[in-house]
Model the fold of this input.
Amino acid sequence: MLKKLPLILLTLLALAACGEEKEKQINFVPDVLEDPLAYFGVETCTCYEYRSLDPKEPRLLGVAVERVDELHSDPDDRKDVHEIVYRIGGTPEMRYVFEAGETELRLTRVSTGEDSAADEWRLKPALPFLRWPVEARTSIRQEVDAGLFQGGKAVGEPEARAVQVNFTAMETVTASLGGGEEEAFEAIRIEFANTPWNEARRWFVPEVGNVKLELRLGGERSTWVLENVRQLDADSCPGKITVVDRCGAAAR
Done:
């Protein structure tokens, strides 16, 4: 019996090695990102609705991918850009303009509100907001010139900033994609440093998008958790001038 022990140990070690190899195959990252829009959670005409963690807040936060066109692209390099509008109770709060590359989601503009006095920051070069594969304990650092515009006119000279995007840790977030059923998502917490606007935190899940958001609006911080994902009404998207379906307008 004692002579058979080494053989048994070798067999167990071999089985353990096979198990490790299977786990590596499950976590394998392909060489090509087949659908960047789905991976980054910015598919055209998608509405993400979030509930506040403040029980006294009845309104929803709506985040909608409303337009995909060349309207806000660089005049020297025309390409389709994705406009994502943030509304609380149907009222616009922020607007982000992204370029979607093969492996990156690059931020070109951020504005607050929609009136003529809104502050709009234009970034050159574009800031890599997300980069495939998105992994915890990594970061992106980008030198940008951030120009402030109001009513389409430049205010002063652009500011040189070193913006940093930190993918800090994995955290479990309980959220819902619709239908009232909640799920536990393993999300990557994302934090930002040295942005000229008040960018807070996001909890991102590949192929889903942001399952949790922390915003700083009007000097106050608020936290929102995803509760529904749906398609915008056809009369509002894509690229309609008049938006009928104001994502997040309904109260919970």
